[in-house]
Amino acid sequence: MRLLRRMVRDERGSSATELTLLAPALIALMLFVVLCGRIAEAQLHVDDAAHQAVRAATLARNSTHARAQARETATTALRQAGVTCQHLTVETHLDGFRPGSTATVSLACEVGLADLTALGVPGTTTATAEATSVIDQWRGIAGGSSR
Length: 147
Fold this sequence. Notes:
It is a single chain. A three-stranded antiparallel beta sheet has the order 1-2-3. It is built from three helices and three strands; from the N terminus they run αααβββ. By secondary structure, the chain is α+β, with helices and mostly antiparallel strands. The N and C termini lie far apart (95 Å). It has one domain. The model has no long low-confidence stretch (mean pLDDT 84). 24% of the residues are buried. Residues 13-55 form the TadE-like domain.
């Protein structure tokens, strides 16, 4: 009986046991925070790329060039930010492409999360963004016509 009481009161090694039991949970929590940070960072970069793309589209002189400029600018902005899209969709809506009208660029970037496999998360997430800008009222359009 005395031996049993002494064993129950003996706390040697309990810290090591607690650390062993808590370490996996702490590591999973840390990886989850990294995952959330990666998703938030990708979203911020896609938002910025959409704004840059719509600005480039409004500076173009015709609708064909505006769409090409929007796609090129979005791709370049994401590459420079270090975001690798497994699939990038750039949609440009030009509303007639005339001074005073609006241009809207919608981006969808599928970002890979394969390097965070310890969490067992799906392999990708899609960050989307949309930006709108007015085509300058006092700017001319190529050929003097609206395309």
